[in-house]
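Example record for the data management plan.
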Amino acid sequence: MMKKISVILLICFSFILISSCRSKAPAQIKNISRKTVGGDPARALQNPSKGRAVSLRVLQKSVEDCMVNGHCPENVLQLSGIKKISGYIIDKENKDIILIGKVDETSPPLYLDDFVIALRNAWMKYAELKGNSYYYSNPGCSIDPDTRVVNDLQQIANQIFNSSDPEIIQENLEQWRNVCRQPQWVRVIGIPFNTRFGKVMVAADYYMKRLVDGSVKLNIEGFTSLTDMTLNIIKEDLDKGRPISINLCSINRFWFSPGENSYLENKGVALIKRSQVKLLTEGEFLTERGEVAGRGGPDPLADKFAKSFSTKYPEIAKREPIYTELEGLFRFVSLAKLMKFKKAHSEAGISLDYLINQYFIESTPVSSTLPGISNIEELKNITETQEGYIEFYLWLPSCGGVAIDINIKDTDIESDKTERLLEIKSSVLSSRPSPDSCSWDFPEEWVQ
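Corresponding structural encoding:
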């Protein structure tokens, strides 16, 4: 007698957490007015670049002047074309802070609006007053399902597991899809909701779910979706006639978080030495009250996927520019908090009052709900056996998010012993055409 083994993976990625939040963005999160989210993946595979310096003093004055007319040039609103922020230089003589970074034609733009939001968050301008206390949150976002959705999915999964009728199973699978597509609530944390900053976080988080469930393939060597990883292990177990070696029913939370953040400084020069974006995960379970709770540790396979995503992040960002944009937000937060921590404005003798308190940030609509994402994969394997017909079912829901929890300590800042930073400072300041120059170029090899 032949034994038919049918393995069905029920996948509903119905909620994801972003604290500082997901590339070709889905239709619901495309077209952010004059400011794009994502970019052309083909262009991102090239790599020419050079160094550029931008005067915060002159930039702030230029924006203040042009905003009187209700419009500023694109060059001003896109930080004079810097595509990757590297650090800052104190120019005491001109009472200025000089932002330095890289320019290339392959990466998506950086935006002044996003940098100002990072500054205001670091200066605690978005802290909420509750009673007599202010409550601060790092930038972030989450996409949360109604708890009833999770309970409904559990019930449908149980019906599938307990049925042997193919027609009933197909009806249940269609129910699964419909429940998964129910709207999920979008939250933006620590910054205003309707901003480009928030939209990038949500888009990166939402798209990450598709990379987890395998509905999008990037064809990057060594990077496989969690769904495909699961299928491969099950197939190998079945081919070798051994019991399934992985957890057949799991809920996993994934979220983007800062990895290592470190800095170099020397006499008025500060550079971001390292600013990682990592994907983290935690296993979860459904309580008797129908609530999702953390297990306190990761599922081994989900953890393997998260580590693979983190390792391959630079390659993923090249294919999907939304993740280059997400990294840009992380670096803005990192730089803004470093400036606040080192009191850069006081050292330079510059007031950033206009940017921090008065500059108008353009509203960018962010959807308050997004449809859930579902994916159902089926693996069939027929082997000779005397045991009859067996079916295996797997339920793999997931949740997650993004959290830009960057909190700088003295130990994160390393003093440069090589004098290289002083050479960078000399090169940048000597290259400045005049004290009123807003931006100018310098040799690219000086920046990270």
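Summary line stored alongside the record: The two ends are 65 Å apart (CA to CA).
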